[in-house]
């Protein structure tokens, strides 16, 4: 036991030093992004935990600015793909084109070949295009003709959805939404923040330039360290209880939720909740996970993984309501 606590102390020290760049990143991003700390924090969790992020929010909330700034701060390549109903898979991943001089077909790479991809309004494109992007997210590789290309790491997809307009959109199927580690719902800034935004945008001097703080290779090292973050068995059981309560609520004295849940979280939910909790602990500069880390990240990991029945929709019950009930009922270690 003595030995274990010594190991955890050592690990804690190591992670405290290695995670210093998180504060520097936040400071750098704060130069151009007003408010939206929650969104930026979730983007970093996705990056450190090797997941992708689905963002839901009305237009004009600095979604593009955030990922573009993050990309500059990490010195990575950034690509923005505007999803439209006439988009083709080749427009995303690339295609074979005929080279007349060489008299042969050559590969032309698409915008997916970057470290940071902003898939803007992903629900505007047809299923073929969505699945081309999701294959790249899952496999971290692209096949064009007979050639297979590995995507550069780190690779983070930030897909956005506009919750207002549903006309002419193609809703992402449940199985595809499950590929996103986090679904983050963002709201409007406060009055004070919005005043700062107005000032920043009306400033005759353009806003400050983002400087590279770290390199992509440093993010890869940080990812390895995130996996090393210590997670006690009690925390593992806590994560499993939360996920299992979405599948079998009656086992957790939550019979009233049974008719409201169409399906619960998949094993991917448990993996992602554990990984995101480790990344959250790393960002808080700790070498071990506490229950609070799991609770903080739970809604973002689980909200798109709890299916609602018609009965729940008729009663205006959201997945957040269900998750709140579960977090209140499941015993905290």
From TrEMBL:
SUPFAM superfamilies: P-loop containing nucleoside triphosphate hydrolases. The keyword tRNA processing does not apply. The keyword Nucleotide-binding applies. It comes from the Bacteria. Residues 259-326 form the ChlI/MoxR AAA lid domain. GO terms for molecular function: ATP binding; ATP hydrolysis activity. Keywords: ATP-binding, Nucleotide-binding. It holds the Pfam family AAA_lid_2. InterPro entries: ATPase_AAA-3, CbbQ/NirQ/NorQ/GpvN, ChlI/MoxR_AAA_lid, P-loop_NTPase. Residues 52-182 form the ATPase AAA-3 domain. Belongs to the MoxR family. PANTHER family: MAGNESIUM-CHELATASE SUBUNIT CHLD, MOXR FAMILY PROTEIN. This is MoxR family ATPase.
